[in-house]
Specification:
The protein is α/β, with parallel strands linked by helices. The protein is built from 13 helices and 21 strands.
Length: about 450
């Protein structure tokens, strides 16, 4: 109770009380939010003044949502080239701050965000945990297995972060380093602290669970496990649920737009339309139908300092039904299938899901870690870390045959034994990566 009172006092002092925003999450005022954003962007953001007028989204000084889908897609390249034009003229009147994308697959983009967007992000998180999975996340005991050093420590171990973690009952484990010694320490901490929630990168949770199983260790079973920041493949989910003895919930978000969708008990991901307006489009920018795969396009509804309108985040997902048995009014995704680099491309235009290659390594006891890289249509390179310096040549040939089956005859596979698979700057595992651009 004392922690809660102190926390609420600090929020009030910081001016980030999000009670009003949280209450508004119950109302899907998407059209109102969109109109307010477009009107603001037209009048205050140089880039959008011309873009919205040409698209017909603004007519005679009024918003015309009927032409919303005519607004051109915003790409990371456009943001890099025209950053200054995308910033609202009135941003200095707002409590603003800098943020960047994760930069897992390339140069990060630099963004300006503000206090209002932060409050909506906090409200979104509360809505997900309390209203969708039924957990008081803010004050539940939590262990966070995270890899982004600036999220874990900031610039050095900041006093503010230490206080925040203490008040919110959060223990942070730095998954940038996951040696056997580190992971034994993680298991001891989890068993000692006995958290209700364990949250972390999908890859980090997966590696820890493989270690626990391999070493035949026992580990505390939390109420829920929440996977985020990376694609949660089916084999990863099964392993994590088996080892922790708890359901894994997939939370989909990104640094530049925060929470996008969260999984419910019926395994559908509900899109947080009150915070980010989400479209799922095919390669021709047409809306996909239910159960079809498409590109995620996002409009940030509450960041007026630097609005992102129809921003292509670089992820792919399968559209779900409009309604779910869990009772949430939020529309759904069936699954997030990964970043576009997680898909391999054939010369005939066929797309091969990267999860296929991950499953090839399932149960291969001689492989400790791996990464499959598509260098060209007919050329793959596989980095492997061996367990005992011995390659199972029979299994290796079988894998090459299965790769040729999906990638086409003549596909060459080059194997490269390495000491370790490098993580991204934010500590993520990229098990598959295509170097081709569609």
């Amino acid at each position: 109770m004392l922690k809660k009172l102190v926390w609420e006092l600090l929020i009030a002092i910081a001016g980030t009380n999000f009670k009003k925003e949280y209450e508004e999450t119950a109302n899907l005022n998407v059209e109102v939010f969109l109109k307010n954003l477009l009107f603001h962007a037209y009048n205050n953001v140089p880039y959008y003044h011309n873009v919205l007028r040409k698209a017909g989204a603004i007519k005679n000084g009024k918003v015309c949502l009927a032409n919303f889908e005519k607004i051109p897609i915003l790409t990371k390249e456009i943001i890099r080239r025209r950053t200054d034009e995308l910033i609202s003229r009135d941003y200095k009147k707002r409590k603003w701050f800098y943020n960047t994308s994760g930069g897992s697959t390339g140069e990060p983009i630099k963004l300006i965000q503000d206090r209002l967007s932060k409050k909506w992000n906090m409200a979104t998180s509360r809505h997900y945990y309390e209203d969708i999975i039924g957990v008081d996340e803010l004050f539940a005991k939590k262990v966070l297995l995270w890899g982004a050093r600036r999220d874990v420590f900031g610039r050095g171990i900041e006093l503010k972060k230490v206080i925040n973690n203490a008040l919110s009952n959060t223990v942070v484990l730095d998954s940038m380093s996951m040696t056997e010694t580190d992971m034994r320490c993680f298991v001891r901490v989890i068993n000692s602290y006995r958290p209700e929630i364990i949250r972390g990168y999908a890859g980090s949770l997966f590696e820890l669970c493989k270690f626990v199983e391999r070493k035949q260790l026992s580990i505390h079973s939390p109420k829920v496990v929440v996977s985020s920041a990376e694609t949660l493949h089916g084999i990863m989910r099964k392993k994590i649920e088996s080892v922790f003895g708890a359901k894994v919930y997939d939370f989909y978000g990104s640094r530049e737009v925060d929470g996008i969708a969260g999984e419910c008990k019926y395994s559908l991901l509900h899109m947080f339309m009150f915070n980010n307006y989400i479209e799922v489009l095919d390669r021709y920018n047409k809306r996909v139908k239910e159960s079809e795969d498409g590109r995620i396009i996002i409009t940030t509804l509450h960041n007026f300092s630097m609005p992102l309108i129809r921003y292509e985040i670089g992820d792919m997902a399968v559209l779900g039904p409009q309604k779910c048995k869990c009772g949430s009014p939020l529309p759904t995704l069936r699954k997030v299938t990964g970043r576009r680099i997680d898909y391999f491309l054939r010369e005939d235009g066929k797309i091969i899901y990267g999860g296929y290659f991950i499953e090839l390594f399932w149960g291969k006891d001689w492989v400790k870690a791996f990464k499959v890289i598509q260098e060209d249509y007919k050329r793959l390179r596989i980095l492997i870390v061996l367990k005992d310096r011995i390659v199972d040549e029979r299994q290796k040939r079988e894998m090459e045959e299965k790769i040729e089956l999906v990638m086409g005859k003549g596909c060459k596979v080059k194997w490269e034994v390495v000491d370790e698979i490098p993580k991204t700057k934010t500590g993520k595992y990229l098990h598959v990566q295509s170097l081709l651009k569609e």
